[in-house]
Amino acid sequence: MGRSGSLEDLLSVAGGALATLAYSISVSEAPCYARHDVERMSNHTAAAEVLLERKGCAGVITLNRPRFLNALNFNMVKDIYPQLKKWEQDPEIFLIIIKGAGEKAFCAGGDIRGAVVEAVKLAPKKAHDFFRREYILNNAIGSFQKPYVALIHGITMGAGAGLSVHGQFRVATEKTVFAMPETAIGLFPDVGGGYFLPRLQGKLGYFLGLTGFRVKGRDVYTAGIATHFVDSEKLVMLEEDLLALKSPSEENIADILETYHTKSRIDQDKSYIFEHMDKINSWFSANTVEQIIENLQQDGSPFALEQLKVINKMSPTSLKIALRQLMAGSSKTLQEVLTMEYRLVRAFMVHHDFHEGVRAVLIDKDRSPKWKPANLKEVTDEDLNNYFKFPGSNDLKF
């Protein structure tokens, strides 16, 4: 249940981490799924990267890049947002379901290499536009006025978190692997990480945001990241039952999710992460990264030393930015957090560590980034303040 496998491998495979149909019968007369056939919103070619479908009274979003662990790219964001807003206003749509194609991932992150790095080199404004549109989509999910059900089966990291955690319902399975691994590539836990991470119990979110620790299976539910836990073999039936509801209310949807959750058989009483919660709360209550590191050193337990080893590999600048981001975000609204994160990400695009992290993890894959500054002492308060500066007319607008 711990940190088995390689986070860099997952990031590398993912590419980063980063119409209407007429009703034949009235709404009140038949189950939602029986009213009509599937309505296809997107061009369903073999290359379609996101499928936007009306199935009965649900809008269904399928992230359709299984070869790349459904990593989110610019075109996907550009397609999802307007359709989501249309569905929000459509009186014949009662819920949204979002899921990933294949068995390995919901969404393993943003397509950093494809959507961002090349854009920064060739057209910086396009990279900024990717993050701007992505954060606006994150906010739209967080403020969505209808039930939003994210089936976070498999790898769910970075951008995948942004597509799920801000929604009303999040369903994990025993195969869910959740992480915010951005500090490993010289970035910070964005997509609203500054909002949802500090709102997890205790200091768990600070721990996840700084270390990129992977939470697995039922622990994703126990941590509060997911609202429900369902055996993966039952996901298809769960979706069918949701689609078969008659004009479903929020309560109808919650009842079905709770039924599947209650009947889940897997790992009923096991929890890896919460064996260590007291220590995590103690270590990560510090107000500086330096003190967190000292706490880990003083503890000296195998688990503490494992986290210390991980943190020491991360970008010092990213660590300090992330801690300040999470502390500030704990008292901000989601929109305020996303505005802050847009300022940060624009600054990161022109600084060394992000590009070096992507080079080391995703391009050359030598996994030996040369951070600048190379240690925490050299990252000054003035440096940090410059990242959080108000950019004037270039600020994020919702």
UniProtKB/TrEMBL annotation:
Class in the EC hierarchy, top level = hydrolase
Query: What's the catalysed reaction?
Result: 3-hydroxy-2-methylpropanoyl-CoA + H2O = 3-hydroxy-2-methylpropanoate + CoA + H(+)
What are the recorded Gene Ontology BP terms?
L-valine catabolic process
Enumerate the spans annotated as Enoyl-CoA hydratase/isomerase domain.
59-388
Lineage: superkingdom: Eukaryota
UniProt KW keywords: Branched-chain amino acid catabolism, Hydrolase, Mitochondrion
EC numbers, comma separated: 3.1.2.4
Q: Does the keyword Protein biosynthesis apply?
A: no
Record carries keyword Cytoplasm: no
The record's annotation in InterPro entries points to: ClpP/crotonase-like_dom_sf, ECH_dom, HIBYL-CoA-H
Q: In which pathway does it act?
A: Amino-acid degradation; L-valine degradation
GO annotation, cellular component aspect: mitochondrion
Which Gene Ontology molecular function entries are recorded, alphabetically? 3-hydroxyisobutyryl-CoA hydrolase activity
Q: Which Pfam families match?
A: ECH_2
Q: Where in the cell is it found?
A: Mitochondrion
Provide the function of this protein.
Answer: Hydrolyzes 3-hydroxyisobutyryl-CoA (HIBYL-CoA), a saline catabolite. Has high activity toward isobutyryl-CoA. Could be an isobutyryl-CoA dehydrogenase that functions in valine catabolism. Also hydrolyzes 3-hydroxypropanoyl-CoA.
The UniProt family comment states: Belongs to the enoyl-CoA hydratase/isomerase family.
Report the protein name in the record.
3-hydroxyisobutyryl-CoA hydrolase
Organism of derivation: Pteropus vampyrus
Identify the gene encoding this protein: HIBCH
